[in-house]
Amino acid sequence: MVVEELEQLVRDALDQIKAQETVVIDVRGRTPMTDLVVVTTGTSQRHVQAVARNLVDTAKERGVRPFGVEGEEPGSNWVLIDLGDAVVHVMTAESRDFYRLERIWEMEEACASSSSP
After folding, report:
1. Which residue among 46, 53, 57, 115 sits deepest, i.e. has the most Cβ atoms within 10 Å of its Cβ?
2. Are the C-beta atoms of residues 42 and 94 closer than 8 Å to each other?
3. Does the residue 22 lie in any domain?
4. How many domains does the structure of the chain reveal?
5. Three-class SS string for the chain?
6. Strand ranges of the sheet holding 78-82, from the earlier edge strand across to the other edge
């Protein structure tokens, strides 16, 4: 599956169960670990779990087997789903605000562009 198809699969699965404020960050060329970092918000711990489960189930139905899932235990504020070319973070609003993952990538991009001649 090409990266654009995987991105659409992720977006569709997240939209289907009403994940909020989904951000897709293209990190190709910036890290060898993955091509896309996706950050999205669930409205509660239970919603975070449901969003993550729906994404895993949808991916499997489309022939994409997750390499790993972390944080699936009840009461978790953050679930990470590693789909290889996409790493998806499903977080409560509080966790997302605290960790600010998008800023890490924005800062890295700003540092790279400011060091260019």
Report:
1. 53
2. no
3. yes
4. 1
5. CCHHHHHHHHHHHHHHCCCEEEEEEECCCCCCCCCEEEEEEECCHHHHHHHHHHHHHHHHHCCCCCCEEECCCCCCCEEEEECCCEEEEEEEHHHHHHHCHHHHHHHHHHHHHHCCC
6. 20-26, 36-42, 86-92, 78-82, 68-70
**Single-letter amino acid, residue 24:** V
Q: Kindly state whether residue 53 falls inside one of the protein's structural domains.
A: yes
Give the CATH number of the domain where residue 62 resides. 3.30.460.10
Considering only CA atoms, which of 84, 77, 74 is closest in space to residue 38?
84
**Is the pLDDT score of 105 beyond 90?**
no
Structure tokens at 105: 């990538």
Return d(Cα 29, Cα 31) in angstroms, integer: 6
Tell me, yes or no, whether 117 lies in a domain: no
Domain range for 11 is 3-110
